[in-house]
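worker-3 :: picked SusD-like starch-binding protein associating with outer membrane
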Amino acid sequence: MNKLYKIIAAVLVIGCLTNAVGCKKFLDEKTSRKLAVPNTLMDFQALLDNPLKINYNSPSAGEISSDSYYLTDEKWESLADENERRKYIWAKDNLFAADSNEWADIYQAIYFCNTVVAGVDKLTRTGSNATEWNNVKGQALYCRGNNYLDAVIIWSLAYDKQSSSSDLGLPLRLNTNFSEVSVRSSVQQTYEQIIEDVKSSVALLPLVPLSKFRPSKSAAYGLLARTYLSMRDYDNAYVYADSCLSLNSTLLDYNTLKLESNYPFTVANNTEVIYFRFMNATDIIYETMPIVIPETYGSYNANDLRKQAFFKKNEEDETYWFSGSYGGRLGLFCGVATNEIFLIKAECLARAGKITESIKVLNALLAERWDKTKVYTPYFAADANEALNIVLQERRKELLMTGLRWMDIKRLNKEGGNIMLTRTLKGQTYKLQPNDLRFALPIPEDVIALSGMIQNKR
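worker-3 :: C-alpha cells ->
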C-alpha cells in the first residue's frame, strides 16, 4: 500500500496549506487535550479541513462494481481483500469488512458535519464574523449532502418516482446523538434531505473558496445538478447545471498538458475542477492497475487527446490502464468539475428536444480535447434521440473512472437502457441484469446486526 501512504502524506500537506492556522493548532495540541470539544469557528473549520475524513472518503464500491475495467484471473486472485473480490463479481453479501468500511467512513464524515452545524448554530452570528460563520456552516451542509448522495447511489436502488416513497433509503443522522436509533428513511426522504442541505449551502458559501478542497457556490450548483440527474429530474438538472456554468464555465485545453506523463493532470494544473473529492484508496483500483475495457479505449479518435491523457500502455501485454484522474497521483477524482456540468447541460437539452443547443454545448467541450494541429469535425444530430445518444456516448468517455458510471447505469436502466454487466473469471461468467436488486449494495452486516435496520433485498 505504498501508494496509499504517499496519498495520505500528500493530502496532509494540502490540508495544512488550506488552513495553516488550524493545522498548527491541531498539531501543537497536547495529548491530554486531544478530546477537547470544538467550540470556535476556527475549531469547526479545522474539522472540515481534515482531507482524509472529508475529501478522501467517497465510496469506491460503485466504481469497483462498474463496467469500465476488468481484472485478469491472476489480478483478481492476487487481491488480499476478500470483500473486494466479492464486489467485483457482484456477490450478494459480505462486500464490506466489519468495523472499518466505506459505510463507516461516510457516517463519520456526516458526524463531523453534524458537529459543525450544531456548533456553529450555538455561536452568535455578528457583523464581524458573519462571512466566516456563513462559510463554515455552508461547507458542513454541502459536505453532509455530498456524503448522503454518494451513499444513496451505492446502498439504495435507483430513484424511481413511482416507488421512491417506499424504496429503502438511508438512516438520516442529522445530529450528534450517539444513542439515537438508526432507522432507514425512504429514497424520497433521502433525496429531499440531500437537496435541502445543498440548497441551504448555496446562500452561505463563497463564490471563490480559499482552496478547491473547500466547496463554493458553483460547487453547490454542480452537486445539485448531479443530484437531480440521478433522480432523472432533467428540468431541474438543467437549471442547476446552467447556474453552475454561469459562475464557472472554464474548460481545460488538453493541448497544454504533458501528455507523455503517467499522470497528466495535477491539483495545480486542472482549471476545470470546482471541488476536489476523491474515492477511497482500494487495492482493486489502485494496486492491480485494472485493465481498461478494449472497446472503451478504441472508441476515442486518434486526434482526441483524451486517448493519450487517459490511458497508458501495460507494456507486458499491450493492454491499457487509466491515467486520467483529475487528481493525478492523489487518487481517483470524483468531485465537481466543469466537464461533468457541460455534459449534464447537454444531456438535459437533448432530452428537452433542443438539439442544436445540446450539440453546441457538447462541441464546446470536445473542441478543448482535440489536437489543435488537426481540424475538429463537430458533431451534428438529425434528431433528439441521436443527440441524446451522442451525449451519453461522450459522457461515458469523458467521465471514465470518476465514480459516476454506477449512478449512470442505474438511472439509464430505469430509462430502458438495458445495460447488463458481465465478468468472466476462471471460465465462469457472472452477470448483473438491468435493475437487479444487487444494484443496491448490501449494508455492512455488522451495521445491520448492531442497529436492527432492514437489509437490502437480494
